[in-house]
Amino acid sequence: MNWQVLIRGFSSYMILERSMSQNSIDAYTSDVEKLASYFEMPDHRKSAIEIQYDDLESFLVFLNQLGLGDRSQARIISGIKAFYKYLLLEDMLLDNPAELLEGPKLQRKIPDVLSVEEMNQLLNAIDMSEAHAHRNRAMLETLYACGLRVSEMINLKLSNFYKDVGFIKVIGKNDKERIIPIGEDAIKYIDIYLETERVHVNIKAGEEDFIFLNRRGKHLTRVMIFTLIKKYSTLAQIEKHVSPHTFRHSFATHLVEGGADLRAVQEMLGHESIITTEIYTHLDTKFLKETIMNFHPRNKQKTIKTN
Predict the structure, then answer these.
(1) Which CATH number do you get for residue 276?
(2) Into how many domains does the chain fold?
(3) Same domain, 82 and 132
(4) What is the Cα 65 distance to its own chain's centre?
(5) Do 128 and 186 belong together in one domain?
(6) Is 156 in the same domain as 228?
(7) 155: part of which helix (H) or strand (E)?
(8) Coil, strand or helix: which one is 206?
(9) Helical H segments across 66-183, by residue range
């Protein structure tokens, strides 16, 4: 069976059985196509079924010689591992040659987080007299209030906005739904936008349920959100690198530093693993020390005796 047939099957599997996002499917498919290109060269010609662990190791050496960065290599390895798990699941292989495959050890890069003061500074940099100001304020308030991914925010629906009970419903990665509390400030600015700006937009057919619309009556793009955030962070004279993800990271950090339960934050962020949430929350040593001193039973006993 040739490479392209297997890759198409892998793509269908990710769509139908894994319900993965199109971005993830495209990335994994691209990773496997790189592998296929290498093993379609005359000196390395092999089918996916014939490949052994040593062959995959030689492919990694090739990537390294090309000067590919550690993160790019790690991502490609992730795609290859998923591909071979699929082949094993389909009984095309007896053993998985990618099972022991290891990539470069990555340093986890912790993104910039805005302080509460910096967040207020950025939000207040929006000139409420400019065009679309109410929409822009409502969007950024919602990003910060709910810790949304940018894709979740631009796809937020009126039918999933339950302001009377203070919740929104979003569709996250792999089409997983989650319910998130939304604060009063975000609700206030959404209401103002709906009542003063959105009512005057000529909405395109099929776009009626999206909350946030552009001037042409269509839902917004990721690029537009990045552009707006860059504009307002510059106006606020914030020197950190600020992106939509900064809002999500700041949301999680401020919650945990304020004493929120880590598993509650995990649920709101939509993380499958608590480990991911621990990385996101980027707890500083002062907060960790205070938490241990205040809540560990040994330390609590000492505090009681001292008092």
Answers:
(1) 1.10.443.10
(2) 2
(3) no
(4) 30
(5) yes
(6) yes
(7) none
(8) coil
(9) 70-89, 116-124, 133-146, 150-154
Nearest to 174 by CA among 7, 11, 23: 23
Bridge partners, residue 170, by sequence: 178
Please tell me whether residues 152 and 20 are part of one structural domain: no
DSSP 242-297: --HHHHHHHHHHHHHHTT--HHHHHHHHT-S-HHHHHHHH---HHHHHHHHHHHSH
In a domain, 96, yes or no: no
Q: Look up the domain containing 62 and give its range.
A: 3-89
Which pLDDT belongs to residue 283?
47
CB 226 within 8 A of CB 140: no
Kindly indicate the confidence band of residue 68, based on its pLDDT and cuts at 50, 70 and 90. confident
Work out the number of other CB atoms within 10 angstroms of the CB of residue 266: 20
On the question of pLDDT at 108 being above 60, the answer is no
Do 195 and 154 share a domain, yes or no?
yes
152 and 70 housed in the same domain: no
pLDDT tens figures, 119-136: 999 999 999 999 999 999
Q: What is the mean pLDDT of residues 229-250?
A: 93
Q: What is the mean pLDDT of residues 172-200?
A: 91
Asked whether residue 231 is assigned to any structural domain, the reply reads yes
What token pair was written down for 10?
Answer: 């892998």
By CB neighbour count within 10 A (0-12 exposed, 13-18 middle, 19+ buried), where does 163 fall?
middle
**How buried is residue 3: exposed, middle or buried, by Cβ count under 10 Å (0-12/13-18/19+)?**
middle
76 and 127 together in one domain: no
Q: Which residues are catalytic?
A: 149, 173, 245, 248, 271, 280
Contact 171, 17 (CB under 8 A): no
Verify that 79 and 170 share a domain, yes or no: no
Q: Would strands 167-171 and 161-162 be described as parallel, antiparallel, or unpaired? A: antiparallel
Tokens of 273: 């693993």
